[in-house]
């Protein structure tokens, strides 16, 4: 059993909620419990070795809360901007932890067959296999309509919310409601799908942001559109609830509904290209199953920007949800999860099962979720 609380060492709820989400990521669990990490540095300074020990503790069957003292100090050592007992941002901790784990995994740049790893980082370490996706940016010249494309790796997608200083146009502006990806929404409600549609819509870059066009050989106005070139196995969505500007610092409390099942097909680059070529329906039928995700963890923040507390909901088995509040673990309903004020929302695609099976082949026996 992996239900185990974590002692708060002094404003460390930001770390505890992310650790709960990571330890309940099935592919990470199978990797660390199969003892596949080969340390190439001093083990007392290796975050991967510490995470391996942490997974062993979580799945040992012990029920008393674990004290993550060594994990905290290793993170402080390798991510000094998080050092100290002040309250930190859980999202910043997630990205810092993934970065350090990626560096300490020492993943090869090729698979055994000599081909490059199939992710934008060209790394086959377990972190990149699970979390890395590719974000495609298409900049289109408004004069010659030439397109410049770049692809950058990402571990998460940060999404603006209505109520921020960034303009936001929801997809449910009025009337009796709207159906998106099979979900029925009340009018005026904001959904995760709304945020993703806004994130991937074309943006006009005005005269103050002209770029040099390779076709025109001069500076021109353009439009920019982001799409997903490659989806990760585990998708992390960060809802930007903290707003920092020269004039104010505040928390945005807008409720955002997120689904148990999320279809990412409309947001991938190949879907956009197919729409332009009139082949969208055929593409959707081919890609739809590969791009569906299931919710398995939600990180929440209660309180204000200056004083707050992080908790998380994690899924164990198919429909069993639990709330993790530092040392206290309680059973939760699906309604509790979906009604919560999400901060970091994590979904997993069925594509994980093929990788999971390869990892399980290295273990003596498979484990249930």
TrEMBL record:
GO CC terms, sorted: nucleus
Cited SUPFAM superfamilies: Cysteine proteinases (SSF54001)
GO molecular function: cysteine-type deubiquitinase activity
Enzyme class, spelled out: hydrolase
Keyword vocabulary terms for this entry: Hydrolase, Nucleus, Protease, Thiol protease, Transcription, Transcription regulation, Ubl conjugation pathway
Gene3D superfamilies to which the protein is assigned, alphabetical: Cysteine proteinases (3.90.70.10)
Subcellular locations according to the entry: Nucleus
E.C. no: 3.4.19.12
Domain USP: from-to ranges: 4-350
Keyword hit for Transmembrane helix: no
InterPro entries, A to Z: Papain-like_cys_pep_sf, Peptidase_C19_UCH, Ub_carboxyl-term_hydrolase, USP, USP_CS
UniProt catalytic activity: Thiol-dependent hydrolysis of ester, thioester, amide, peptide and isopeptide bonds formed by the C-terminal Gly of ubiquitin (a 76-residue protein attached to proteins as an intracellular targeting signal)
PROSITE patterns noted in UniProt: USP_1 (PS00972), USP_2 (PS00973), USP_3 (PS50235)
One GO BP annotation of this record: proteolysis
Family annotation (PANTHER family): UBIQUITIN CARBOXYL-TERMINAL HYDROLASE, UBIQUITIN CARBOXYL-TERMINAL HYDROLASE 22
Name assigned to this protein: ubiquitinyl hydrolase 1
Lineage of origin: Eukaryota, Metazoa, Chordata, Craniata, Vertebrata
């Amino acid at each position: 059993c992996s239900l185990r609380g974590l002692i708060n060492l002094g404003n460390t709820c930001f770390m505890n909620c992310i650790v709960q989400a990571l330890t309940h990521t099935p592919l990470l669990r199978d990797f660390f419990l199969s003892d596949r990490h080969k340390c190439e540095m001093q083990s007392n300074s290796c975050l991967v070795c510490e995470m391996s020990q942490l997974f062993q503790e979580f799945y040992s069957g012990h029920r008393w809360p674990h004290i993550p003292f060594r994990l905290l100090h290793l993170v402080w050592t390798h991510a000094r901007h998080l050092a100290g007992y002040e309250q930190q941002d859980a999202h910043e901790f997630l990205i810092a932890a993934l970065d350090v784990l990626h560096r300490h995994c020492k993943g090869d740049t090729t698979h055994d067959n000599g081909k490059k790893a199939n992710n934008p980082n060209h790394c086959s370490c377990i972190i990149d296999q699970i979390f890395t996706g590719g974000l495609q940016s298409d900049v289109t010249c408004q004069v010659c309509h030439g397109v410049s494309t770049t692809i950058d790796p990402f571990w998460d997608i940060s999404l603006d919310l209505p109520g921020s200083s960034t303009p936001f146009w929801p997809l449910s502006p009025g009337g009796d409601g709207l159906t998106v990806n099979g979900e029925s929404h009340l009018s005026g409600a904001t959904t995760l799908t709304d945020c993703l549609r806004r994130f991937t819509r074309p943006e006009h870059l005005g005269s103050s942001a002209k770029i040099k066009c390779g076709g025109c050989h001069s500076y021109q106005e353009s439009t920019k559109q982001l799409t997903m070139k490659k989806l990760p196995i585990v998708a992390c969505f960060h809802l930007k609830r903290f707003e920092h500007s020269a004039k104010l610092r505040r928390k945005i409390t807008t409720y955002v509904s997120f689904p148990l099942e999320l279809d990412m097909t409309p947001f991938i680059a190949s879907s956009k290209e197919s729409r332009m070529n009139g082949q969208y329906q055929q593409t959707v039928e081919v890609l739809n199953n590969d791009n569906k995700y299931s919710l398995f963890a939600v990180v929440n923040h209660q309180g204000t920007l200056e004083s707050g507390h992080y908790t998380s909901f994690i899924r164990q088995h198919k429909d069993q949800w639990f709330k993790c509040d530092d040392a206290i673990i309680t059973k939760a309903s699906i309604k509790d999860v979906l009604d919560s004020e999400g901060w970091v929302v994590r979904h997993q695609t069925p594509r994980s099962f093929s990788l999971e099976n390869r990892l399980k082949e290295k273990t003596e026996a498979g484990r249930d979720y």
